[in-house]
């Protein structure tokens, strides 16, 4: 029976739709019954989708700054899956079940692409069987139920490969019409390639080999028109992916080492010089496919070829579908080799080549014809049974052994036990501190209890609570414990935690600073414990009478303190909620002698409430009332601060409107005396820590490692990095009135950490003016120019640095990079050789 005859019996697109619909219903039944919480990666990706959902609530399509911040919402992972999920959540609401609806869209793309490939290369029958197999391969349905990037990547790679295949196969009849089709499919391929690279960078592992294969073939046949089309498609893809990659290329490269090399070492993946590294994915192919779906099609194909050979059809067999199967083999083998070359191995990293495997298997299944038809249908029925047993396990050793034997390591059972208390933990924190944005230190790290899924459930509550894993380094445990008000501990198994975790757990549970707030019992015979700081650093109290401008009603400090060490200080503010929440306070502790000597003052600028006053939850009736905010923090007189009596000056700056006004200060004095002992103090506020770190920048690279280690630590305490915004507003205000080298370095550092490249360049140009005899000042400016792909400007900036210190290796390295980016390979080579010597 020919394909034309079969089409008269059924509508293939209707059958394809039914295949998708049945798979979709099965998936949603699983989600309706499942009570689990997302694990590490799933929760992290779900939070990423919420970040984009929030950004798209109030888009500013014609603002360049908005687009820059939009692309930077996901600095390491391309955001197409997040954006697609954000749109889905805007339609169906937020939450894990709503977010996973996006996989139905990607499933439709996958099935349509595989069906199209089957029709293009073989027949409608093969296309439909391949689409059906994509619903039944354990490697695909296992991850179709998880919110990860690998299934969306599989769908978009399949779409891209289909478009490339169509473009490759277009005939030469009716030249003008064919050329139009070729240009059209070249453009569609470019668009799909760009989208694939916007899902995950590893899309290249799967598409690079067929792309090179086609390119070499076009050049070999001197088909210059086709080459132009191929180049055009690549240019189209660049237009799609370039904005995100340009904004995040440096972080993407630096995080790539942690995601590959470091992860591979931690997980014990085989080294590339071992046979195991190159056979890893071959060994797990039965896990991805299941034994019945792997063996039955192969046997059918061997019998088909054998019968053809014995019936003197060998020559015909050699030509039949040879080039088409070879084209699929190019994709599969190229993907296999490039994925094996990646030192970090995981079964889900090769999912995008499974649709091509499904095509091979479908071709083999369709070789069972005539009276052997029952074999293919029996195989499919067995695959359906295995899928449901992997999803909904049946009690009994026989069934477990049966499933494990035929479909090993594919189990993804629905979780039917008691719901985990993540939403209750988040609600408890919000109810206790309703006016604050809180950061929760999550000390265990298991699949069910970890920083990522608590961070996600906090994001679901309008981003009022953030989860972070702290206490990972013993030398930072004391700082971590003093910097957060909430901690979560767990009895029993702790999961993948560092050695320092036991120390911080002991500090929280047995120390005097925290008290047990609430306990939840978990199903695995363990309990979850929420601890709260006895004396939180920020306390908010509503007042009965309305307030307007911010007032400083009380300040408590010791009578005397030494320089160079933290000094405890308590500020008590009152005002309207809008003024308090939007307020940056510029605090100057100045010597009574009123000299202009910089050693006779220090700063304590920051937002009221450390920037943690939550702006989005108060009902209208409370907005008209006043509030009291009490801060218990510490400030840092510099080590060279002159001895004497110091008083406080205060100015208010509204971060939204730019409004400023002086704040009346209650009588308060502090004596600085190097001979006295320090009073125990809480942790310094993050703005003070930033300025202290920035003051070491003139030392050059010797200071950078410590700076980035410490900023990485304090970024955990402020997950939205609002302390950098506070610092920028305060520092810009002060620098407009008085040039100061240290403050200029601090402003530049804050803008670099926020990845505001253009503003960072302006700040570093100010640094160069104020610190013109320091070669490192020029080096910092040159580096940011290189980050922005301004190699010529970087080269010009480095000239004064070379004159100041021609032997500085950092200057030479930056000069080499600038030369390389300008295409001056000879100069770059000479600089490399000079550095080596």
Automatic annotation (TrEMBL):
It comes from the Bacteria. The keyword Transmembrane applies. Residues 70-244 form the ArnT-like N-terminal domain. SUPFAM superfamilies: TPR-like. Pfam families: PMT. The chain crosses the membrane at residues 12-31, 101-119, 151-170, 182-198, 204-220, 227-245, 284-305, 325-343, 349-366, 373-392. Keywords: Cell membrane, Glycosyltransferase, Membrane, Transferase, Transmembrane, Transmembrane helix. It is found in: Cell membrane. It is a multi-pass membrane protein. InterPro entries: ArnT-like_N, LipidA_mod_glycosyltrf_83, TPR-like_helical_dom_sf. PANTHER family: MANNOSYLTRANSFERASE YKCB-RELATED, MEMBRANE PROTEIN. This is Phospholipid carrier-dependent glycosyltransferase. It comes from Funiculus sociatus GB2-A5.
